[in-house]
Amino acid sequence: MTRLCHQQDLAEGQVRGFDPEGRGQDSLLLVRHQGRLHAWRNACPHVDGAPLAWRRDAYLSADGRHIVCYAHGARFDIATGRCISGAALGQALSPLRLRIQNNGEVHLAPPHPQETNP
């Protein structure tokens, strides 16, 4: 498992990108919404994985209610990842599994076996 942060590092309504593979670009985002942490791939489903943010950690709409793809204007529900308006309507962000340790450390959990490609 890959350590991302401590759960106290993200306040309610805050989002942060991570580059766990060291590629120089955040491949996932972590957001605290209604007390829960949600992890999504930093990839718009509309255009072959285009990054969502227009600058580092700028993933949310101005009112903080939606994740936004700034390249296409698509808006996604924070809790479900489903697109609610814009070019990706009917599509969804790819969720990632998290594991929170007893000490509050947040780790990226491996995918379920059925989620991996054969």
Automatic annotation (TrEMBL):
- What PROSITE patterns does this protein's entry cite? RIESKE
SUPFAM superfamilies referenced in this protein's UniProt entry, alphabetically: ISP domain
The record's section on Pfam families has:
Rieske
| Keywords linked to the UniProt accession | 2Fe-2S, Iron, Iron-sulfur, Metal-binding
Residues forming the Rieske domain are 2-107
Gene3D superfamilies for the chain: Rieske [2Fe-2S] iron-sulphur domain
Q: What InterPro entries does the database record attribute to this sequence?
A: Rieske_2Fe-2S, Rieske_2Fe-2S_sf
Write down the CDD domains for this protein, in alphabetical order.
Answer: Rieske
The protein, known as: Rieske (2Fe-2S) protein
